[in-house]
Amino acid sequence: MLQSLHSCKWSLWHAWNSLKVLKDAQPPPVVAGILQNFASTIATAKKTQKVQLNNADDVLKQLQEKDDINNAERSRLVAYFLQFRPEIVDGGKHMMEQAEALFLSKNQTVVWLCSQLPQHCLPETMVSVLAFLLSSFNSKLNPSSVLSFLSFCANSGNGLAFKKANDAQLNVLAQYLCAAVLVDTKFDELAVSIVVAVETSVGSRVLRPIIETCIREAGLGLALVKQEPIKRLISNVNERYPCLQVDMINGLALLSFVNWRADESDNKATQLLTGAFSAANPENAKKMVDQLETLLRVYPKIIERQIGMLSRLLAQLVSMNSRNVKERMSLVAFSIRVLYQLIPVAEQGTLEHIDALISVLISFAERHLLEKRQTINETILRTCLRYLDSHQTRAQALLSEHPETILKLCDGIADRYFVEQIQAAVRGARTN
Q: Would the CA dihedral through 234, 240, 243, 245 be positive or negative?
């Protein structure tokens, strides 16, 4: 028994000494360095794991601080953000702060989130965000994000978001357009398209405050190199809207808005018409047609006085070959739109010219469109039906001159009720 106790005591003494040796032992320097690096990596990982993402603002802060994160981490953070805030911007009391944080950022992921606002926000939230942006100009906002959002609002729902925009808001809109073109020429075309979209949905009243603000921005003591992009924007809008006169005098833009005399406006419209029909380049012709479309929308009476000229120019296309006609189809489409818009409101003295233009269109369709059964055939027939509704006697007399062509144009049209209306009109014209 005593021998066993002695043996146990001896073993415990050896174990104690072994532990003491291990405790006092130091690893080689190389091994110590590896162990130290490994320990710091673990500590960093643990520290990263401690970052708490409790709300959308936390996630947004992480995104803005990490511009060079990999795709997996970016996707993870975006998923977290949308989980916390599915609409990207809430419609609550913090809406303005949330919107400002998004539009201030130049981080590419946050810019992408801004572009997703239309897909995630409720319509009323979109209107509120637009009102916030147009309430005052903020030079710190990212022009790319702002213009992308403004473009969507201008082009969606017929631009309803801008319907109630006042001059002060339109001034702010123009300031953002100017700020964008100063940053990069890539915004030039987008800026003009926003003006066109807003004018199309709201009306020509928007042009004066927008252009006047652009003129003012160009004269705010900017260096000449910075004035040029804004002057280019003014010039591009002026080119799109011939009803504006913007004269560059001594480097300053002076605006006179639709103060033309009748002969000046008619001369301008005539120049555009003849230029569009004679243009060798289809792109140049299209630009002139765009300006004519603007005149038709803003000042239809100017175009009404040009219908006689239009019918004479269009008659030249009837004898052209297919290739030349294809390059000028925008002129045919414009002629149809002129008729469709002006037939119900045309003055009595214009009806003779309308007769001539419809006859030319029917002859053109007979020569170039019958066998192809293009949609434009149906559009021509609908224009004839509109003429019947507004001026039945004149229209029937006109249809009686082209009964066979009118009936052939009906081939291939799916709307049978419409076809029956046309056929009945032709029969009525023959009877009379």
A: positive
pLDDT tier at 191, thresholds 50, 70, 90:
very high
Residue of 219, 128, 206 lying closest to 172 (CA atoms): 206
Please count the CA atoms within 13 angstroms of the CA of 343 that sit on its side-chain side: 24
pLDDT in tens, 357-387: 999 999 998 888 766 656 888 899 999 999 9
CB 303 within 8 A of CB 295: yes
At 13, list the tokens: 């003494």
Helix (H, G, I), strand (E, B) or coil at 358: helix
How far is Cα 244 from Cα 222, in angstroms, rounded to an integer? 24
**3-class state of residue 257 by DSSP:** strand
pLDDT in tens, 304-352: 999 999 999 999 888 888 778 888 889 999 999 999 999 999 988 899 9
Q: Tokens for 413?
A: 């049209």
Q: How many CB atoms lie within 10 A of CB 230?
A: 26
**Phi-psi region at 373: left, alpha or beta (left = phi > 0; alpha = psi -120 to 50):** left
Residue 16 has pLDDT above 80, yes or no: no
Helical residues (DSSP H) of 184-304, grouped into ranges: 188-202, 207-218, 224-240, 262-278, 282-298, 300-304
Residue that the structure tokens 């062509």 belong to: 405
pLDDT at 15 over 60: no
Q: Which amino acid is at 28?
A: P
* Residue 278, number of CB atoms within 10 A of its CB: 12
Neighbours of 365 (CB within 10 A): 24
First-to-last C-alpha distance (Å) of the chain: 141
Would you state the structure tokens that stand for residue 263, as one six-digit string?
Answer: 């002969």
Token pair belonging to 357: 């233009």
User: 245 has which bridge partners?
Assistant: 256
Consecutive H or E run containing 277: helix 262-278
- 91 backbone dihedrals φ, ψ, rounded to 5°: -90, 15
